[in-house]
Design goal:
Blueprint (H helix, E strand, L loop, with lengths): L7 H40 L5 H47 L3 H9 L6 H28 L2 E6 L5 E4 L33 H10 L4 E9 L6 E12 L5 E10 L1 H23 L2 E5 L11 H7 L1 H6 L4 H4 L6 H12 L4 E9 L5 E12 L5 E10 L1 H63 L6 H32 L5 E4 H11 L10 E4 L4 E4 L1 H17 L8 E8 L5 E7 L31 H11 L4 E5 L5 E5 L37
Helix pairs in contact: 1-2, 2-3, 3-4, 11-12, 12-15, 13-14, 14-15
Length: 666
């Protein structure tokens, strides 16, 4: 509806118009009456035989008012003609004002009309002002609320009008004077559209309309570079002459960038789909495959064509068991996603193809179930690799079992040979030792000192041979004896071993420091051998130490692994030669200093390694020695593969008076 508009002059104009109308009607009636009276008097006079003085006086009296009425009537006609002329002039001037767009001046012109028909012109002014004001308000709202701007050009395609809020003017820190009066191709910050400026100018010369023609613009909307879309149409004068173009522009930078990102994403997806082993599939609400895409056709061939309109279990009924298909269909009917459903299909050319499909339900904006979509993957190569791996594992297991049996037979033969050889050698060595003892007793009174020394040397040699033979047998048993693990109290076992150690000539007795509560998951018989060797060596190499101390304790590694330590303050060893300690028959001390076979630590190492642990030696000459070993975790009790020994803090100096009493969890 037009805006209502009233002014204080409207009421006065209305009353004036009403009085003028009343006066016009009164004058008209008066003129009519005068003319009627005059005619009524004149007609009899004219019809009489003659006119006397009295008649002439009467005729004069009658004709005078008639003349006045006629004059008034003539004046009224002239006034009405003048009023119509002024009204016509006002309408013409109003039309000219409206034609050039100055509708406010036209409204004011109509409000200044002469008192001919003021109410009509006032009503017309109100209607024009209401309609034009409403149109202007709507146009202003559209300009302020939309992202479009208005532009015009003259007949030479130069910009003649442009909205000041256009993003390539004010937001770009430019003035209208920098843009108006120039063609689009003359603006250095506007780049040509697709096809170039020549094609654009030819289209303008042909006076063709265009829509959404895209231009790249520097500094558009304050950005370094943006995109605008122009639409335009030709405009003409009243006489049909071409007067230029008019149109609107729109900033499409955000849409253009979104489109480019979407295009780049689609390109990446296309590359990914082309290079990967996956393809996309989609079904309807009845789980029937919809039209296949190019990737499905490339992957599956004719199978993709025949799949349209059919379900998966209808296409490949033999690929899975009936129970498996029933479970899969129940998942899809319940709208549950599924992952890695694997089955085998056969192409039309007879080649087998293993596929793995995963899917999820899809819904519309109202939550209505539309079907499933997901991806499929060709896993034929993986399945073939798995089959080959299974076959190779079977072959490897067979080869390992055969090799294990051979090694068991060889170990059994070697052990039997070692026992037989030891038995065969023990007897003659015992005979030689016995004969040497018999000769020494018989020649004790008659033989000289030289003979006795030779016989003593022979007895010691045979004794060493027997000791070495026993050590070799122990080494052989350490590698072949079965390991039966159980909780072992190492503290108690160490006390028993200490009580059975052979006596040796010492400077001072040994102070034993055995940590109570040491427990290990190991073979008790083999732990007895380990402790006998380690504690026996510690006692042997401290026999010349005035205040000999030997300790058995434990420490925790960084990962919580328990590490056992056997420490002493005896002779120690050369740290540079520590790697030879665990080699058979390698000794770091001469026999005249400390006797031994050089096999004990080798046996200890093999037992520890067969328990899944490791052992190492730390020491220095004259500073004592420390042997650290671990036995592997309880979870790996069945493993006989040697582990690694964690780094632990260096052992504290031995306390010769206070024994450690730290509680260790079993």
């Amino acid at each position: 509806m037009p805006w209502p508009h009233t002014s204080p002059a409207d009421a006065a104009r209305t009353s004036t118009s009403a009085r003028l109308k009343q006066m016009s009607w009164a004058l008209g009636v008066l003129c009519g009456v005068a003319v009627a009276v005059a005619l009524a008097a004149v007609v009899p006079l004219l019809a009489g035989p003659g006119l006397d003085e009295r008649a002439r006086t009467q005729l004069f009296i009658v004709l005078f008012p008639s003349a006045l009425a006629f004059g008034a009537l003539i004046s009224l006609v002239l006034v009405q003609r003048r009023a119509r002329k002024l009204a016509a002039d006002t309408l013409r001037r109003t039309a000219r004002e409206l034609q050039r767009g100055a509708w406010r001046q036209a409204v004011e012109r109509m409000r200044e009309t002469p008192p001919a028909e003021p109410s009509a012109f006032g009503d017309l002014a109100n209607q024009v002002e209401g309609v034009m004001g409403e149109q202007e308000r709507r146009w202003q709202a559209r300009v302020e609320l939309s992202q479009e701007w208005y532009w015009e050009s003259d007949e030479r395609h130069r910009l003649s009008s442009l909205s000041a809020e256009a993003p390539m003017v004010k937001p770009a820190d430019r003035a209208l004077g920098d843009v108006l009066g120039r063609r689009h191709d003359e603006l250095g910050f506007v780049h040509p559209p697709i096809g170039g400026w020549a094609a654009f100018n030819q289209m303008l010369d042909r006076q063709e309309s265009f829509r959404e023609l895209e231009f790249e613009v520097d500094g558009l909307g304050g950005r370094a570079r943006g995109w605008m879309s122009l639409s335009g149409r030709p405009r003409y004068h009243r006489d049909g002459r071409f007067s230029g173009y008019e149109g609107v522009g729109h900033d499409i930078t955000v849409h253009k960038e979104s489109f480019r990102r979407l295009q780049a994403s689609e390109q990446r997806y296309a590359v990914l789909a082309g290079l990967s082993a996956d393809w996309y599939w989609i079904t309807d609400a009845e789980h029937r495959f919809m039209q296949p895409n190019e990737e499905q056709r490339r992957r599956l061939g004719q199978l993709a064509e025949v799949a349209e309109g059919r379900t998966r279990w209808e296409l490949y009924p033999q690929a899975l068991t009936e129970a498996q298909w029933r479970a899969h269909r129940a998942d899809m009917d319940a709208g549950r996603p599924f992952h890695a459903l694997e089955f085998q299909i056969v192409r039309n050319d007879g080649t087998a193809l293993w596929v793995s499909v995963s899917g999820a339900p899809r819904f519309d904006e109202n939550g209505r179930f539309l079907g499933y979509h997901g991806v499929g993957r060709d896993i034929t190569l993986r399945k073939k690799a798995e089959q080959m791996l299974v076959q190779h594992n079977r072959q490897l297991q067979s080869a390992v079992a055969a090799r294990t049996r051979e090694l068991e037979f060889a170990n059994r033969d070697l052990e039997a040979f070692a026992r037989h050889l030891a038995h065969e050698l023990r007897t003659p060595i015992g005979h030689v030792q016995g004969l040497a003892e018999l000769l020494r007793r018989r020649l004790a009174e008659h033989g000289g000192s030289e003979v006795n020394e030779l016989l003593d040397l022979q007895v010691r040699a045979t004794q060493e041979m027997l000791t070495t033979l026993e050590a070799l047998l122990a080494l052989a048993r350490s590698s072949s004896e079965a390991i039966e693990r159980a909780p072992v109290d190492l503290s108690r076992l160490a006390e028993e071993v200490i009580n059975t150690l052979p006596p040796v000539e010492r400077v001072a007795p040994v102070r034993w420091q055995i940590e109570p509560g040491l427990t290990a998951w190991a073979s008790e018989s083999q732990m007895r051998i380990v402790l006998a060797n380690l504690l026996g060596n510690a006692a042997k190499f401290t026999r010349r130490t005035p205040d000999a101390v030997v300790a058995l304790c434990s420490v925790l590694g960084p990962n919580g692994q328990l590490v056992f330590q056997v420490r002493d303050n005896g002779a120690g060893f050369d740290a540079a030669r520590a790697s030879r300690l665990f080699q058979p028959f390698h000794r770091l001390h001469d026999d005249h200093e400390f006797q031994g076979t050089g096999i004990g630590l080798t046996i200890v190492q093999r037992i520890v390694q067969r328990h899944g642990g490791a052992i190492r030696a730390i020491g220095d000459l004259g500073q004592g020695a420390c042997f650290e070993f671990s036995l592997g975790s309880r979870e790996a009790a069945n493993s006989t593969i040697a582990g690694t020994l964690p780094d632990v803090s260096q052992p504290q100096p031995l306390d010769s008076t206070v024994a450690p009493s730290r509680e260790i969890a079993a």
